[in-house]
C-alpha cells in the first residue's frame, strides 16, 4: 500500500476540496418557487490558481470558498461561461460613450455631479450654485443667488411631481431609477433653438432625455429588443409631452406658462425677464455667434472656461490583494441597500467577508522563474477613487490565462457614470497591458451568461465573446451560438463546430481553446441524460460499476493529513463503506474531470 506524503504541486501548495454533491435551490434568475436550480458544490480549503483555471474552463465558478457548477441539462436557467480575448475586444458605440462621459466628468465639463457632493459644495468659494445636482456658474453674489435658487427649486419640484404622476398612472415604469429634475436659465443665443413663439423663454429642463433612456433600458432588460412603435413611444419628445400633461394637473404657475419643444420642457413668460443674462451661467458651452448681443456673454464664457480648469478631478485605480477594508464594506452596504434593495441583515460584515473577501486561492507572487504579471496571481480588489473618494470596487481573480470578474459594487451617487461598463473596459485593458509580461494571460472572463435571463444578456455586448460548450468544453463564438440558445436554453454548443463527416476528427475554430490531452471520450456523455431520469440524487451515475471502479482508482483521497490513491484507500474500507463512497467519487470525477480528480485532494472528514 502506497502512502502519498508529498501532495504539493510544482507551483507551491495544493488544492484541497470537500465534496457536497448535488445541490438544489430556488432560482434567483427566473424567481421560480420550485427548487429548480440544480448544481454540484464543493468547498475549497485551498485551491491553486492553476486548478481553478482548469475548473472555470469546465464551467465552475466560486463564491468565496464555495465552488459550484450547474447541471446544465437539468437546471432551470442554464448559465454558460463567457469570455473574450482582450486583444480582439472592439468597444461598441455605447461603451465608447461611457468612456467619453467619464472623461468629461474628470475634465469638469459634465453638468451632472454626485448629489451628495452637490449638496455640500461651497458655492461662494468658486462662484457655483448647486440646484438638484446640476452645476451653474456665475458672478455669484449672494443677492443674485437668492433670486434664482427659490425659482429653480420650485420649478424642479413641479417637474418631479409630474414625474411621480406619470409613474402612478403607469406611463413610466415604477422599477427604474429616475434622476431628479434639473433646470437651467436660458440665454439669448440659445432661446431660438429651444422655443418657438413670441414668449420670453426663461428656464428649460432636459429631464425627458434621461427618463426616455432609463425607460428604454428598463423595458429592454425585461422584454429584449423593442419594435419601432415602442422606440417612438420612448422618445424624449413623447416623454416631455407626458410630463407636460401631468404637470398641468399640479397647478398653474402665476405669470408663467409651460411648453415643450424638441424634448425640452420650457418655462416662458410674456413679461420682460426679471433677471439679467449675467445672473447665472449654465455649465457648458455658450454660443458666441457674431450676431450675439447678450450682455456679459463673453465675460461669462471666459469664467466658464477658467472654472473648468479649476474643477478637474483625478481618477485613481488601485489593485490590492483581497482583504477586509471597512471603507469598502461601507460602500458595499450602500450599494446593496440602494441598488439591490437588500435588507440590512444581508449586508453584515460576516456575510460580506464570506462573499467577497474570503478566498481559497493560493497566492502566487511574481518571481524570476515564472512569467506572471507584476501583481502575481490570486484574488484582488480593484479600487476606483475620484479625488480620494472610493466610488467603486471590482473584485477579480487573476489566473494564469485570464482576469475573471467576480463582482462589482459602486457608489449610488455616481450611477450616472455607468461604472459597471467602465470598470469592465478597464479590466479588459488591464489584460492587454499585462499580456506582454505574462503571455498566457489573454482572456477576460465575465462569469456566467444566462440567455434565458434578460438581465444577464448585457455581457454579450462585450465583443467578440465566446461561450463554453457544456458537454465538450470547447469555446464557441457567441454569434454562432446565439441562434441555438434563442431556440432553447440548454444546447450542446460545439455540435455546430464539429464536422459531421465520420472521417474527420475534432477541429477547433480560432476562438476555441481546448486543453491539450482532453478528448470527447473523457467527458462520459455529460449532459446526455433525459430530464425524466431525475429521481434520486445519484440517478445520473452510470450503472456499470466495473468500468467506474477503474476510473476512480487514481482519485487522490485526503484523510487525517495523509493522502492515498483510491485503489489503495479502498482496501482499508469495508464493503459497505466502499459501496457508499464510490458513487460519490464517480460523480466527483465526472464534474471536475479525470485530470483534476487525480490532482486535487478529495478530503474525507
From TrEMBL:
<comment type="similarity">
    <text>Belongs to the R-transferase family.</text>
</comment>
<dbReference type="InterPro" id="IPR007472">
    <property type="entry name" value="N-end_Aminoacyl_Trfase_C"/>
</dbReference>
<feature type="region of interest" description="Disordered">
    <location>
        <begin position="1"/>
        <end position="23"/>
    </location>
</feature>
<feature type="compositionally biased region" description="Basic and acidic residues">
    <location>
        <begin position="537"/>
        <end position="549"/>
    </location>
</feature>
<dbReference type="InterPro" id="IPR007471">
    <property type="entry name" value="N-end_Aminoacyl_Trfase_N"/>
</dbReference>
<comment type="function">
    <text>Involved in the post-translational conjugation of arginine to the N-terminal aspartate or glutamate of a protein. This arginylation is required for degradation of the protein via the ubiquitin pathway.</text>
</comment>
<protein>
    <recommendedName>
        <fullName>Arginyl-tRNA--protein transferase</fullName>
        <ecNumber>2.3.2.8</ecNumber>
    </recommendedName>
</protein>
<dbReference type="InterPro" id="IPR017137">
    <property type="entry name" value="Arg-tRNA-P_Trfase_1_euk"/>
</dbReference>
<feature type="domain" description="N-end rule aminoacyl transferase C-terminal">
    <location>
        <begin position="327"/>
        <end position="469"/>
    </location>
</feature>
<keyword id="KW-0808">Transferase</keyword>
<dbReference type="GO" id="GO:0004057">
    <property type="term" value="F:arginyl-tRNA--protein transferase activity"/>
</dbReference>
<dbReference type="InterPro" id="IPR016181">
    <property type="entry name" value="Acyl_CoA_acyltransferase"/>
</dbReference>
<keyword id="KW-0012">Acyltransferase</keyword>
<feature type="domain" description="N-end aminoacyl transferase N-terminal">
    <location>
        <begin position="25"/>
        <end position="97"/>
    </location>
</feature>
<keyword id="KW-0833">Ubl conjugation pathway</keyword>
<feature type="region of interest" description="Disordered">
    <location>
        <begin position="528"/>
        <end position="549"/>
    </location>
</feature>
<dbReference type="InterPro" id="IPR030700">
    <property type="entry name" value="N-end_Aminoacyl_Trfase"/>
</dbReference>
<dbReference type="Pfam" id="PF04377">
    <property type="entry name" value="ATE_C"/>
</dbReference>
<feature type="compositionally biased region" description="Basic and acidic residues">
    <location>
        <begin position="109"/>
        <end position="122"/>
    </location>
</feature>
<feature type="region of interest" description="Disordered">
    <location>
        <begin position="109"/>
        <end position="130"/>
    </location>
</feature>
<dbReference type="Pfam" id="PF04376">
    <property type="entry name" value="ATE_N"/>
</dbReference>
<feature type="compositionally biased region" description="Polar residues">
    <location>
        <begin position="1"/>
        <end position="12"/>
    </location>
</feature>
